[in-house]
Amino acid sequence: MGLHEECGVFGVISTKDMDVAREVYYGLYALQHRGQESCGIVVNDDGVFSSYKDLGLIGEVFSEEVLLRLPKGRMAVGHVRYGTTGATNRGNCQPIEVNHQKGRMAVAHNGNLANAAELRSILELSGAIFHTTSDTEIIAYIVTRERLKTPSIEEALSAAMNSLCGAYSLVLMSPQKLICARDPYGFRPLCYGKTPEGMYAVASESCALKAIGAEFVRDVRPGEILVFSKDGMISREEHCGEQKRKLCIFEYIYFARPDSVIDGVSVHAARMRAGRILAKEHPAKADIVVGVPDSGLDAALGFSMESGIPYGIGLIKNKYIGRTFISPKQSGRLDQVRIKLSAIKESVEGKRVVLVDDSIVRGTTSGRIVKLLQEAGAKEVHMRISSPPFLNPCYYGTDIDSREHLVACHHNVEETAAIIGANSLGYLPVEKLGELIFYGGYCSACFDGNYPTRVPADTGKDRFERKLSKWDK
Fold it and tell me: Of the CATH numbers 3.30.360.10, 3.40.50.10240, 3.40.50.2020, 3.40.50.280, which one belongs to the domain with range 266-441?
C-alpha cells in the first residue's frame, strides 16, 4: 500500500534455441511489483518476432497454453507496466514492435521522458502517426528514424539518446542483437547477469536475475549501452559521464524489492537505515513497532533495533488481492484497505504502537490503516514515515503529477497526524536521504524540488483525473 512506479523490463539472449519466453516469464514474475496493469513478451525466432501482450498480471496473462504457443528462440524481451503516461488499454501494452525498412525491432522501457510532449509534437509535424500514448513509442520512432541513417541498431540508439531527456532504462531487440541502455542520469535501475549455460539476461532489478538462475554481473552504468550478440557483449560509453548520477531515491524506499541490490547498495539495508534514522529523529514512547506490509517492514525492523522497542507483526497482508489503485472509485478503494490488511488484535491490544510505512500521499489509506489498529485495541498509534513529505510532482516515472493531491502541500505535520488519526507523526528528514545509500548522486525532486532536468511545460497527462492510483495514501 505504497506509491507506485511504472514498469519493469527483462530480456534474454542465448547461444542456442530454447524456451526463452518461459525464461522471460520467470523474470517478469520477479518484477511484478513494478507493474500490474499489463505485461507482454516478444520472442525472436531467427529474426521472426512472435508476441503476446494483454492487460493483467503475469500469471493471469501467460497461462501454460499461451507460453506453449510462443516459439522457441534465442532472444526475447518482456515488460510489466504500470502506466504513468498513457491510458490503460491493450494498445499501450509493451514491448512495442516496429517494422521498418532495415528490419524489425521490439522495445521495452522503464521511465518517463521529461521532453516527451515536445518530441511527440515534432514527430507528428514530420508525419509520424502514433498508435499509443506512451513515451516508449516516441523512443521507438526516434530510434527507427536514426536507424535509417546509421549502419547499426546500436549506432541508431546512441544517436537517439542525443534527443531524449529524462528517465529511460530500456531493452531493445533487433533480429540479431539484444541491446540495453540507461539514461545518462541513471534515474531508473538496470543490470545484467549470466547463467552457467552462457545465457545473458538484462533486468530492471537483480532479484529478477536470481529467478532464472543467472548470476548478477553488474549494473548498467548511467549513459551506457550494452550490445549482446552471438559474439558476446560490447559496452559503449559515449554517453557516460554526460550528467551527474541521479538515481531515484525512492527505488530504495519503496519501488524495488528488498532482496535487490541497486548500484551496489542493498535495498533491504537502505530501508533498515531509514528506520534507524527515524528512531533517532522522531523517538516515541511505545510498546511495539509494527511495519505496514511490505515496504514498511524493513524500516520498522530498523526502528526497533535502534530504539529497543520490540518489533512485532501487527498487520497481515492478504497476498491474493490486487493493489488498491485497481479500484475504480474512492469507496471501493477504502473497502480494499480492509480486505487487503487486517490487524492482529493479540499483538496490538492495549499497546502503544509505532506504525512505520514508506510514505503518505493523500492520507486516505494511511488513515484507514491507523483506524484498523485502533479498532484492534491499540491504545496509541504513532506514525513514522521512511521518506520525507511529498511536495512536488515527478517527471521521471513516478505516478504523481500534481501538488493538488499531496496532503503535505496543504497541511503541516500536526494537521496531517490529525487527518490520519495518529497520536503523532514523523517523517524522514530530507537532509538524511544520503545516509540511506552512502553515496551522492540521487534524485529527490519529489521531496525538495531540485529537478535534474528542465521541468516540462506540458506533461500531456493527468493520471489523477483519469484513474485512481496508488497515490491515494
Answer: 3.40.50.2020
The grid coordinates of residue 439 equal 553515496
Q: Supply the pTM of this predicted model.
A: 0.91
Letter for the amino acid at 227?
V
Q: What's the CATH fold of domain 7-243?
A: Glutamine Phosphoribosylpyrophosphate, subunit 1, domain 1 (3.60.20)
Task: Tell me how far apart the alpha carbons of residues 86 and 133 are, in angstroms, rounded to a whole number.
Answer: 5
Lowest mean pLDDT among 86-100, 167-181, 318-332: 318-332
Spatial neighbors of 152 by CB under 8 A, at least 6 apart, are none
Torsion angle of C-alpha atoms 269, 275, 280, 285, degrees rounded to 10 = -150
How confident is the model over 335-383, as pLDDT tens digits?
Answer: 567 788 999 999 999 999 999 999 999 999 999 999 999 999 999 999 9
Q: CA-CA distance, 292 to 439, in Å (whole number)?
A: 27
Q: What whole-number distance in Å separates Cα of residue 164 and Cα of residue 103?
A: 23
pLDDT at 470: 37
Q: Which of 7, 180, 394, 443 is catalytic?
A: 7
Site of grid cell 547461444: 15
SS3 assignment for 282-314? CCCCCCEEEECCCCCHHHHHHHHHHHCCCECCC
Q: Is 446 a catalytic residue?
A: no
Domain-wise residue ranges, the chain: 7-243, 266-441
